[in-house]
Amino acid sequence: MGSNLGRDTLYSGTVGAAAEAALSGYHAVAVSADDHQATHFDVAGQLAVDVMDKVYGKMDPHTVISINVPDLPKEEIKGVKFVPLGQRYYDDKFHLIEDNKYELSGQPADFKDQAEEFDVTAVANHYATITPLQFDFTDYENLETVKKWGFNI
Fold first, then answer.
1. Which pTM does this prediction carry?
2. How remote is the C-alpha of 152 from its chain's centroid?
3. Which of 16, 83, 87, 128 has minimal Cβ neighbours within 10 Å of its Cβ?
4. Which element (helix H / strand E) includes 107?
């Protein structure tokens, strides 16, 4: 349910399943429509087929291609953009539902007017997005710094 945009990719079951396939050496695509009750899947499905046709045998299978599509009829989608992951923030609120019990709810913040183009801004502006993902989270720039801290056991 919902999209795999920005930092949400870290929590996504869709991306997680595709990552498992990629880590096992299989080409994988994570495809999502940007709505928790999506009804328009034709563009997402067609993009998934097109991407797999182009990727298979031509790209490292350890790369996952993430596709996100606005939940709109095909004629309202402006095109496809190839963009990096953006930041996705939520307008979260806790609501008291009964004595000492709270519920968290919230919506993603509005990204339409951000100057830089990322997956979250492109989808908010009615574009489908394609983002290649890799899964080495190592911060190589700071690895040597951490080594110098001298932890020993």
1. 0.81
2. 38
3. 87
4. strand 101-108
Pair 138, 144: CB distance under 8 Å: no
Supply the Cα-derived Rg of the chain in whole angstroms. 18
Per-residue pLDDT of 93-133, as tens digits, reads: 787 888 888 887 766 666 666 666 899 999 989 999 999 99
Work out the burial of residue 114: count CB atoms within 10 Å of its CB; fewer than 13 is exposed, 13-18 middle, 19 or more buried.
middle
Closest CA to 38 of 80, 2, 8: 2
Residue pair 81/122 in contact (Cβ under 8 Å)? The answer is yes
The residues that bridge with 132 in the sheet, in sequence order, are: 65
Report which secondary-structure segment, H or E, holds 33: strand 28-33
DSSP state of 63: P
CA–chain centroid gap for 64, Å, is 11
CA atoms of 81 and 117, how far apart (whole Å): 9
Exposure of 40 by Cβ count < 10 A (0-12 exposed, 13-18 middle, 19+ buried)? middle
